[in-house]
Amino acid sequence: MSIALVVRLSYAYSANIPQSSVMQGILIVTALHCWKGFMQPLVVQCVTIPVTLLESPLFQVYILKKAATGSLARPWKEESPFAA
Fold it and tell me: Whole-prediction pTM value?
């Protein structure tokens, strides 16, 4: 099985992971920087995006080659920051 097919299948299966939230953050921070010249949100995004990527189960299983057991077992649950 080719790598592209595995990535497509895993992305289709993992559609419940909020990948668009990262893109929304990038767009909002870029707009704030271009519109008002804010620099602090850019610095914060430069730190939080790699951390979010490293904590992503998809990244850990397929890129870091960790075993898909425990918290990395599918289906992956979306962690809400507002959950009690």
Answer: 0.55
Number of neighbouring beta carbons within 10 Å of residue 1:
6
Sign of CA dihedral 50, 51, 52, 57: positive
Instruction: Kindly report, residue by residue over 31-73, the tens digit of the pLDDT.
Output: 888 888 888 888 888 888 888 888 888 889 999 999 989 888 8
Residue 42 exposure: Cα atoms within 13 Å on the Cβ side: 10
Q: Which domain holds residue 34?
A: 17-69
- Alpha-carbon span 66 to 1, nearest angstrom: 19
- Which two structure tokens, joined as six digits, stand for 70? 């425990």
Assigned domain for 57 exists:
yes
For the beta carbon of residue 61, count every other beta carbon within 10 angstroms.
19
Residue appearing with tokens 């809400």: 80
